[in-house]
Each structure stands twice: as structure tokens, then as C-alpha cells.
Design brief:
Strand content: 5-15%
Oligomer: single chain
Low-confidence stretches: none
Shape: globular
Number of helices: 2
CATH topology: Alpha-Beta Plaits
Strand order of the largest sheet: 1-4
CATH architecture: 2-Layer Sandwich
Number of strands: 4
Radius of gyration: 12 Å
Distance between the termini: 20 Å
CATH class: Alpha Beta
Order of helices and strands: EEEHEH
Mean pLDDT: 94
Number of domains: 1
């Protein structure tokens, strides 16, 4: 599963620096999560760090990008190896 920032985002910018995969960036209106880079912090932490620091609880599981823990771990290994870097 990748995560999604909902329109309840207040653009506080606390989530972006917490992402170990650089998956969060400022979008046109609210912060956005790149699903190709989001591993829900699998491989780095026990829980998603953006969710842990979000003051308005606006980060949810992305309904269109459902991935198992194993898939997230494979994505983590790909990102750490340098594949898929933008």
C-alpha cells in the first residue's frame, strides 16, 4: 500500500522531511506522495513517519495502490539499490 495525503492537509510541511524515501513533495495545492517511492516506511521504520507526525491525520492508505508488506519491502530494496531514482 502506498499512502495518500487527503485534501484535509494544512500544508504544515512536517511530513516531507520525515520521509526516508523522498516520496513527499509540495503539490499545487497540498503535499503529495509519490506512490512509486512510498513504502510506508517499510525497511526503515516500524510505522509510517509521515502519519506519526501529521497534526491533522490527513494521511491514509491509498485505495488505488494496495501493496502487501512483501511488495513494499521489494520496493524499498529497489529504492535503496538506486533503481527508480528520479
Amino acid at each position: 500500500m502506498a499512502l495518500l495525503i487527503t485534501d484535509e492537509c494544512i500544508n504544515c510541511d512536517v511530513c516531507e522531511p520525515e520521509c526516508p524515501n523522498s516520496a513527499i513533495s509540495e503539490g499545487p495545492e497540498i503535499f503529495e506522495i509519490n506512490t512509486d517511492r512510498c513504502t510506508e516506511c517499510v525497511g526503515h521504520y516500524e510505522t509510517p513517519q509521515c502519519v506519526a507526525v501529521c497534526p491533522v491525520d490527513c494521511i491514509i492508505i491509498h485505495p488505488e495502490h494496495v501493496e502487501s508488506r512483501e511488495m513494499l519491502l521489494r520496493k524499498y530494496h529497489r529504492l535503496v539499490a538506486g533503481e527508480g531514482r528520479e
